Amino acid sequence: FLLWPLARVGAFRYRMSRMSWRSIRFRFTGSTREYFFASALGYLGMLFSLGFSAHSLNNLQRRLLYRGSSLGNLPFQFTGESPHLRWAWFCAWPLTILTAGLFWPWWSALR
Predict the structure, then answer these.
(1) What is the pTM assigned to this prediction?
(2) Is residue 106 exposed (0-12), middle (13-18) or buried (19+ Cβ within 10 Å)?
(3) Which of 50, 54, 72, 81 could join 24 in a cystine, given CB atoms 3.0 to 4.6 angstroms apart?
(4) Cα 59 from Cα 55, distance rounded (Å)
(5) CA 74/CA 25 separation, integer angstroms
């Protein structure tokens, strides 16, 4: 479970290094260590909150990935906020269970 953040950062770094737009390369210079520790603490928070803080963890992970990315020397910005997803997250779990998983794509698209 703790190796997942390392794999995710490595895969994201690899994909960014292989992309370009009009001969300008994308790159990821974010910290793997920062992403790992933020994810590990987020997983502990999810465990203690019974999964109700998952939207905050998802937002934090995306912020760390996107703010560490750039196109050439132009850094990316991320302005997402997790309170906007809070009510959707609280609705997604019960509705996913009631609809046998059919509601989960809605949550994925909204996220």
Answers:
(1) 0.78
(2) middle
(3) 72
(4) 6
(5) 11
